[in-house]
Design goal:
about 325 residues, 2 helices, 17 strands, Jelly Rolls
């Protein structure tokens, strides 16, 4: 999910390349070794949410000893990229409150809550969280063990964007790396799950050659996505990307002709975890969470027993 003309629901509007380019311009918004980049963290003005310690409302859960996320590894992206809303008609505010993202009992919880919340002079009916990794890399294997929320209108995602994307409020943009608009920067959707199609997980690529309602997509049905943890993975090298769940592949992207239009994936990408809310959210939905056991990035061609080169085990 990014300049949310990218991660369009399959039944969403089918934008032509010309129309999407015009809209994006108005919005402004792993064949080699692994490259790691992580500058000294800077606290940008884009992170505007209120940091609230504790759970002040009965609508919030009461986890044991909730802890804030590791700010050396993750950045809360909260700024509305166009000053009004997120993309694809999403109706949530992303905040940096502990109510919406916290660690407890060894896992990360990203929580969407039905509540009226005002930020940046805009009031939304839901809050949630969108995390950017402060680590970017080219090629490698990504594994994320997670349990997904349930409910029509919920939209959790595990994905990646080019570090060079020009998206207002994104971590790497605030660090001065933004040089390309989406989709020229590339987008890798490792896992998306729409509650309107419960138990079907999808993976996709968005590039200048195909984006929005991209043709580069595949997925599989997992009957227990919301009741059990599963490992969502990407194996990325200079030739192809393979997407899997629990070691079972469901999509491979390997264009024969690799150029900036089909393969903007020879440069650093960073990870995102978020939980969006669609306008079609069920009236019965008041609260849900994406629970993440770990996020691990391994070097290219690393063995199954190798240690990750970057990880968050969410051990509080």
């Amino acid at each position: 999910m990014t300049i949310r003309l990218n991660r369009l629901h399959p039944i969403a509007l089918r934008l032509s390349a010309v129309a999407a380019t015009i809209i994006l311009g108005g919005l402004l918004a792993c064949g080699g070794g692994l490259t790691q980049t992580s500058p000294t963290p800077v606290t940008p003005s884009a992170d505007t949410g209120l940091k609230v310690v504790g759970f002040s409302s009965s609508k919030h859960s009461n986890p044991s000893n909730p802890q804030a996320i590791d700010s050396e590894k993750w950045f809360h992206q909260t700024r509305l990229p166009d000053g009004n809303s997120w993309y694809n008609g999403e109706i949530q505010h992303y905040t940096n409150r502990i109510e919406n993202a916290y660690i407890s009992d060894g896992t990360l919880k990203i929580v969407a809550i039905r509540e009226s919340f005002t930020d940046q002079n805009r009031t939304k009916p839901f809050t949630s969280a969108r995390l950017n990794s402060k680590y970017a890399f080219t090629y490698g294997r990504v594994e994320v063990r997670a349990k997904l929320p349930k409910g029509s209108g919920t939209w959790p995602a595990i994905w990646a964007l080019g570090k060079n994307i020009t998206e207002r409020g994104g971590y790497w943009q605030t660090q001065g790396f933004g040089t390309l608009n989406w989709p020229a920067s590339g987008e890798i959707d490792i896992m998306e799950h729409w509650g309107t199609n419960q138990n079907y997980v999808s993976s996709a690529l968005h590039t200048p050659s195909s984006f929005g309602n991209t043709v580069n997509v595949g997925g599989q049905k997992i009957d227990t996505v919301s009741s059990e943890f599963h490992i969502y993975s990407l194996d990325w090298n200079a030739d192809r990307m393979i997407f899997s769940v629990d070691g079972k592949p469901h999509y491979t992207y390997a264009p024969k002709d690799k150029n900036p239009s089909t393969w903007p994936f020879d440069a650093d990408q960073y990870l995102l975890l978020n939980f969006a809310i669609e306008p079609s959210i069920a009236s019965s939905f008041n609260r849900g969470e994406m629970e993440v056991d770990y996020v691990r990035v391994y070097a290219p061609n690393a063995s199954l027993s190798a240690d990750p080169v970057w990880a968050d085990e969410f051990n509080n």
